[in-house]
Write the structure tokens for this entry.
Amino acid sequence: MNAKSPIAKSPITKSLSTDEVPGYLADRPVLRELVDPATLTVSEVGDGNLNLVFVCADAAGRRLVLKQALPYVRLVGPEWPMTEERATREAAALRAHGALSDNVCRLIGFDAERYVLALEDLSDHEVFRGRLNAGGPHAGVPELLADYVADVAFGTSFLALGEEEFRRRAAAAVNPELCAITEDLILTEPYLGAERNSVRPSAAAAVQRLQADRQWVDAAMAVKHRFLTTQEALLHGDLHTGSVFVRGSAGAADFSVKAFDAEFACYGPVGFDVGLLWANMLFAGVRAAVLGEPDRARSLVETVPQSWERFRSRLTGHWPTRHSPAKYPDSYLTWWLGRIQRDAFGFAGCEIARRTIGLAKVSDLESLDDAGYAAVAETMLRLSRLLLVEQDSVTFEQLVRAALPG
Ligand code: SR1
Ligand code: MG
């Protein structure tokens, strides 16, 4: 080999095309047992912000999903490069979470060279945000997501693993590039200003007022500090309603709730996952109120206290199984729950700000006409201030009242 021109592996992984997927599966013994590459129909359905997603179905009706990390952020394009190692981190998180909860998409395999995850097909599910925007049922979904967050919060913490194993797992799960997206988009730009921010004219004055409000900005910076300095458990890291598949309704035999898209997974404060979920349920509730559905709005907003009660009870249920009971008295659980609740209020306030002002907005708000947009944005920005500035004292009653004025 010529020392001056070594045969180097291309730094850019080759992206799969729909035409290449059958051949890709045919080369992989485990996967070709699950779907027949010879009779495959493949469609690329990725509508998220980052990746390629292929749904593969064979003539016998068997299905499999492949998700490939692109070397850039799909939402923006190749001018925003992004490590494909995020797929490796997602695979590790899905494996860890799947061992602790049924409410997460099942990982079937992972190709670490091409950054391709093979995932269970959930085509008979729908994205929760889409269902909420269409006025569909939500009962039981936040509760199962609260169970999921509690199960992984406990199961990946030092309380379940013991301190040494916990530190090993936390070190193995570092996800700096994806955390940087969160730190910028959710925890910096809405407050300090950024070119990527945008709102319609009707919300511009309210945003200017907030960005000049030191209490709001400083509270957000304190929340950012929590994200950067806290390692409680292996978070999902992006638990909004667009990261959840649902099928059927609570009580029905086919009811199913599965979190997916875990590439933002990292060790962090448990309140981050709880808070993102709350912020996105509040968007759904405030939207319903503005669209003239007061009962549905109340029911959606009340999922915030209800999911907290479910989370509290589920975490408390795990408590007797902790690794070293003598080292952690019951008072520790009481303190931790209080800390998680305060964190969740703060992160909810930040997620609301980001989804209203920053990059990667939500269809709950963006699909509304100007009058609807103005009304929802106004309430959501008020909620963001309440959750951030009053993070340590706000009650669920006050939050519900603020979300449903009048
Ligand atoms: C550039 S990625 C933008 C957003 O998409 C993901 O779903 C995360 O929420 C991230 O912040
Ligand atoms: Mg996503």
